């Protein structure tokens, strides 16, 4: 068996409404880079990654098209560990993370999808299979909403089946964040998990002050309080603050997670399969977390992450993200009573309506796979 055809495409999708956080500012669109793989025996796989806005998307597309696709043709798609290492070494000098990890992620996801389809198993069971039921939370991107708008959005999420809520923090004044957290806690009651996400906007001292201020609202975790590079700072916040720390969406190698975990700067590792290096790397982080008795959570791309959390025994919450392709999917995930059921279709089971997506194609397919 060998890889006969690979193809890559880029789509730029507008968001249904402008989303805002403390770091990225106003977000009006996002890009998705898709990879299709087909073998000489007709087996197929699909993978993808995404970017905030369109920045970097064309570079990821180019890396896959010019540096990975010619290199991967003719290889046995089943030996994903070897292929992953070869991709990593090939791009190591210009990457060691960043857009290189995004490019590898899309290819790696496609290969795992192909392998699971070959044996007619859903991805979560093919990866080991622990439980097909996964708890979810609503990942709000809502920093600039008024308190009244925030109340409406939270009530809407509760009506849509969510039993855990995350909001953005990082307004200019901490008192504004406290007001918002208090308002949400009042709506959801004392027991519903409430997470807060600062998107790296604070200094260490500001994060410690915020953590202590949020404690009385029974906040489940404080996410990305500072820049991901400051491992020592994360450990200080964890030790001197009052809340568990979640981080990882901006950590793009397993070695970055190792450092953060060993130094005690994290309670909820949060690898993103679309930028950590795909399923191969995500599973390594999840197992590493388990070795340190830590639960693992996710960031975005929930239609694939549901399989990964369902495959491991130390799963925490699945984030259902605002950057969604649900309207282009034939069978999007259904949220009921705070849970989702991992799909039973072979592979990740995601089927897109490519015809409906044509208006958003930036760089189309070379082949019709």
Q: What is the CATH homology-level superfamily of the largest domain?
A: Enolase-like C-terminal domain
For the residues shown, what is the average pLDDT? 95
Estimate the strand proportion. Answer: 15-25%
Instruction: Please give the share of residues in helix.
Output: 25-40%
How many structural domains in the coordinates?
2
Element-level helix/strand string: EEEHHHHEHEHEHEHEHEHHEEHE
Number of strands: 12
Highest-level CATH class of the largest domain: Alpha Beta
Cα distance spanning the termini: 17 Å
What is the name of the CATH architecture of the largest domain? Alpha-Beta Barrel
**Uncertain residue ranges:** none
- The quaternary structure here is single chain
Largest sheet: 8 strands, mixed
